[in-house]
Amino acid sequence: MKVLLSGTSYRAHTVILVTIICALGGAWYFASHATAPLLVAGDFPHEGPASSTSINLIPHKAATSTPPIESVLYHYIEITNGCGPYYATGTCVNMRSGPGTEYPVVGHLRTGVVLRVEGTTTEANGKEWYKIIFDKGLRWPDRVTGDWYVAVDPAAVMPLVDVGDETLTPDTPPTTKRIVVDLTKEMLYAYDGDTLFMQEPVSTGLEFTPTPAGTFTIFYKTPSRYMQGPVPGVSDQYYDLPGVPWDLYFTHGGAVIHGAYWHNHFGQEWSHGCVNLPPDKAQQLYEWAPVGTTVIIHK
């Protein structure tokens, strides 16, 4: 689905969240702000009148309409034309501490990063800037020393509108979809019933941070997550990865299927326990898999 706002094309996706670290690389800083969501009203069917054939001595009440239920949408940006996984190819998108080129650069964004934004700010010369926000807690908040801004640039930055985080509830409808990860082959298979939707090489956990084996359920989705290390009891490695894209959480210990923009070692072990996909494949899987999807991890 595409949503057009202010003449710009936004893509809508389904979403969720929880956290832990399961990635490698990168160094960043971060800022947290409140934001007002975009509300889009959707019509629901009206209640019909009672049947004329029913025998009822109580006077019939006039039919009442069900008020529209508002769907909350959030704004994001995706870096579509930045530098490569190791900063060696392409041109990184600069992230600055304020809305203008006179502000210092505080980060270099690679292709595949997805960040939530509060909206746009216009500087004196008329150029627009996205203000980055983080509404989830950080493991290492002291690394964030100020605000983050990214220039509006259709050639490198794609605006998105998304429903935000999705959580499994007792009312979640059942699904026949399942994701199977083969730890020996480093392959992911996605099925709807007996129909194969996707078959892709992945990167799962390294020897000392293995991906858990077993049968799980996707209980959280989110289009963007800031992942940081070290993680006590899991990894002593330092890393700072804002905008980890298209996250499907399947254990409460933090195991996630997500996009990885910081490496290209798909087909071999390379994570802290998560299941890494190229960002574009992770997005396809994210949009296809609802919460409640079964995840089977085996050797």
Write up what this structure looks like.
The protein is mainly beta. It has 2 domains: 2-14 and 28-37 and 72-162, SH3 type barrels; 166-298, L,D-transpeptidase catalytic domain-like. It contains 1 helix and 20 strands. It has one helix spanning 279-288, and strands at 2-5, 8-11, 38-42, 69-79, 93-96, 105-109, 114-122, 128-132, 149-151, 157-162, 166-167, 177-182, 187-192, 195-201, 214-217, 220-231, 235-249, 256-259, 275-277, 294-298. The strands form 5 sheets. Strands 3, 4, 7, 8, 9 and 10 form a 6-stranded antiparallel beta sheet that branches. Strands 11-16-17-18-19 form a 5-stranded mixed beta sheet. It is globular and about 55 Å long.
What descriptive keywords fit this protein?
single chain; mainly beta; 1 helix; 299 residues; five-stranded mixed β-sheet; six-stranded antiparallel β-sheet; 2 domains; SH3 type barrels; 3% helix; L,D-transpeptidase catalytic domain-like
